[in-house]
Amino acid sequence: MESILQNLNGMAELLAVARSEYVSHWDPETVQRAFQWATYFEHLHGRFRTNTRVHKALADRLLSINESLRNTFGLYRELSFKDVGHCRGVLLASLLSNPALPKTLSDTLFARFRPCCFDTTGQRDQSDLNHLIGIARLKAASKVLSHALKLDGSTATKPYLLLLDPETETKGEMVLKSLETWMRCPSAGPRDKLVDILFAQLQQDKINNRSDFSKIVAAVLLAKQTSTESGAVDLALKWLLSNRCQLQTFCLGVPCALLSELAHRYPSFRCAYLELLTKWARSMEYDFSCGDWRHGSSPELNWKELVDRFMYLLEGPTLVKEATETALCALKADDGDFEVWGISVWTDLLIALKKM
Amino acid sequence: MAQQSTIPAFCLEYWQNKAVEWGQATTLASQQDVCLHLQQLKDFLQQIFQKLQHMNTTAAIKTFPLVGQLLGRLCWNPCVVADEESQRTLLQCLWCLYSAEPQNAIELKANDWIQSMIRHLISDSETENNSFIQILGYTSEEYHSNVVKCMVSSLVTELRESCCNGIHMPKRFTPDRLHSLSVFCIPLVTCSEAAPLIEALLTCCESGSGETLSADFLKAVGTALLQKKIGLQETVIIGLWLRYLPSLENVTLHLIETVVSIPHFSPQEMESLINDSLLPKASARHPHIFMIVDTIFRNILLESDGNLLVQTLMQMFTRSLIQALLFGEAQDKPPLKAFFPHNPQPLLMALLKHPSDVPSQVWPQHLLCIVETLKVAVEDKDNGGSQRGLFENWFLLVHCGDWVDIAAQQLIASKAETSEALLWLLAFYHHPNNENQQRTKLLAAARKVCDHLKVLFSSTTLSLSHLQTSLDLAEANSEESGSKYLFNQLFLNFLLFSAGGQVIAKDVVHLMTHGNLLNGISAMLAGAEHRLNSYGLMDYKAHRTLKLLQEHLKRKA
């Protein structure tokens, strides 16, 4: 049993290297041996698939292997027990999609896996091809379904359902799952740090605009948790609320309906959000020349946006609605309880909101 | 949809133009067009593959200069790639153009291009998802699988809500949108992650104003079910059959073909084959499904001139149907009359009771009852068109052919009065129509043989010569296969159950089979064995004779 676990180590390392740039050092014999190993592991998987004790031992070992390899390799893809059953296919897919694979090796691989010529291992080759077909099929299926979802053009009629598009929702779920897995590792560092690291990596990676990242964080907070004790969502929330600037970017990048839903679920977010909006409103100045409220330094924080946000909060669930109303009335009272336009931002807000 | 029938069988140019027109399938119209042409595209790709298989790359490019372009364009079309079969053929075609040892610049270039195509298909390097996936440590496969599941579940939720709302809220899914959605699902029919969506679509639209779902979609689901590439709940499958008749017909034909092509099914295997097809259960709940299935059975039976396997299939099917009716969970079970509207009730009650549900001592009385009711039904001139009545009642008898086999078994040992009735039954089974007195003639010959065999029944020392007259008589009257069958039944039952039959068994069978009836005899023996086993008749002697004959035939074959 111990030797099997050792070999599992070797297999994971092998696959990790197959995905990395180190594969440029490989030669044909290495490829040959790699596939032999993969065949051995597939056979192993077949034998132990139904044996729960061995299955669990292997799965546990994989957890710790994943963790240590993650630290070694910059970008590492985790191995699960199910993958062991398709080892050859996984290996083939990894090698073929790795740009660092030397040309000679990729030529040999392509020639070898020609599905139309059946050599002695003809039967085997079909199953490797099946794995590749499966990958391509899922990619295409997601595109087809995204077209299908777009059939109904307007999303305005949809209330709290489908707040997020499926891609972002999935990304949020996957981030959460990753976080939970990492937290389960015995040698994981302090949990706050984990969130910091992960989110920092995701943020840095965003070549596109920041609102994608914000939406992903929103998705994480709205996702269904697989295990409630892990507290991963709370950590994420804590991370979000810990930095004012971060929170502001978040609130600007995420649609109002989502923010309203978040305010409903998480009281701490509700307070922070209201605080943010209050600060924002307070920093607005009334421009007498055009009769409108403006923000001095940032023109994107305009009046309409502010009103919209409050409106979504007021149209939300009862708790949120009441909290917002109370806050607004209290602020109006503090300011002097004026009923005239142009003096207190709170009065004007309430007037504008009543009109809608 | 109008141009379906005019597409030429093999036209590279046509598909090339189509592929250009589709582009990457970014507009609704092009996406729908791809999905609707998917089946024909699959056939075409299969044809191209057959041709490319035997060519090397240079020859292929010379013969089909545009094929590379076509394949390339199709690789970028997600509707084509999403369907497993078309993607597989596409990849196979691509790989055919790959040269293991490139001989010239064209082949080298082709190799590079193919590698890039395949890489494009399986990895996400071009899109922004790639780095996200890598940071978290997933593969693109897992990511896309999760995205698909998420999309499927949101569509399913919408569909379910839309259907439950009914009168109160405006339906989000208009019939047009449902139709378009069903077209989109055509390539996804074999995708297991999309199965909940397929089910939701099929259960959603029940309400009446014509069929909202696309016929191509229904056809694709039917085909996928037959090839066992998708698993759906039973009620959903039955719903599909009810709304799209060709799918029901295909399942029935597939069952018949399977049974006929493999003639050595054991009765248990055939029974499980029948039950797995879900047809008995569906028929029990919906009599008109049974009517359609039965019509197909009848046609095949008549076209095949009474093929034995088809008859056995019908008998086992009827048995499964009756069991499904008796033990099924449906609250309101249709009466028997709904399934067999043209047969009189007494006959139905008598025949549809299976021999295993009747104690063996009661068999003779029951058989008499059957014969009497049958005679009444058949000779009843008032029964709207007696020819029709005759046929329908004979047909019912075919469904319940087990009783005919029992009758043959009981005949030799029976008393004089019963024998007459049993003989009539057997003769009627093989010659329902007595226009040219065939039945009467057969009856007379069979009576003579039977009387002769009865005399020899209890004698312990028999030799071949004793049976010679009977065998000759049988030979003389066996111009038709039906008659031959009857006589074979008589002789076999005699050999199995008589006192001295075992000794001469092999020789008699040898004489019977010189007319090349080998298969028929084996099937008859298998049937006899099944009856001995299932009706609990502890007749060791018969068992031994049976085994002896079976081995003998096996050796001869």
Calculate the mean pLDDT score of chain A and round it: 78
Strand content of the residues of chain B, in percent? under 5%
Number of strands of chain A: 2
- Oligomeric state, counting identical vs distinct chains: heterodimer
Largest sheet of chain B: none
Q: Tell me what portion of residues of chain A adopts beta-strand conformation.
A: under 5%
From N to C, what is the helix and strand string of chain A?
HHHHHHHHHHHHHHEEHHH
Overall SS class of chain A: mainly alpha
What is the helical fraction of chain A, as a range of percent?
55-70%
Low-confidence stretches of chain A: 118-122, 154-161
Number of helices of chain B: 31
Strands of the widest sheet of chain A, in order across it, are 1-2
What summary fits the major beta sheet of chain A? Answer: 2 strands, antiparallel
Q: What is the molecular shape of chain A?
A: elongated
InterPro entries (chain B): FANCC
Organism (chain B): Huso huso (Beluga)
Protein name (chain B): Fanconi anemia group C protein-like
Protein name (chain A): Fanconi anemia group F protein
